[in-house]
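--- STAGE predict ---
source: upstream dedup step, 1 unique chain passed
mode: sequence only
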Amino acid sequence: MKLIYKNKIFLKLLVLLCWLNSIDFSAQSDPVDSLKGVLKNAKHDTVRCKALEILIETAPDGEWENFNSQLQKLVTENLRNKNIREPLILFYKKRLAFTLINEGIIVKRHGETNKALGLFERSLAIQQEINNKEGIAYALGAVGVIYQELGNNQKALAYHLKSADLQMRLNDEKGLAYTLIYIGDIYSNAGNVSKAIDYYTQSLKLNEKIDNKQGIAYAVNNLGVVYTGQGEYD
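--- STAGE serialize ---
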């Protein structure tokens, strides 16, 4: 459930590596190895944070979790510094919220759903404090997913609708397409087939518009399940 927008990630990667021209990357063909070099050689914690942030999004399972712990430790240490000033406070709080979401994903894998909920809510509170609207939208969705799993569909729907509203205002079509699927799932589980079909269809159209093949597959699959349940096979 890591939030991955690949185009954004690799743009960040290219900018970071080009900016750090004091480090020789010519002998390194793997960008991940280059980023590990950044961690070792960077002179400022903000650079280390940016490198860790990209590593979290690009490293495989079993490895990105360690980078998340490193980033959380680094930002926490900096936020404890009484001499820190804006805009560094904003910079570090944004990344703290990011690590809390990821930590929630990790504990959720181990079945600690309530602990995950607490971490997602902490992340949401920080995102709201710093008014990071993209982060707010994602954290709202993460909380909504947990409430779905806990069986509290009323709360889940409220969080997903808030997330969807914010995503529409941000023109985050990819994020919105996934949120629409979650909303469709809630209505499907409640037996409201017409509403479920409506939201799945909205998601399908949006995913087709942005050519998100994974999202298309999810929407088509969910529509298929609903229609099959209704005895419609064509």
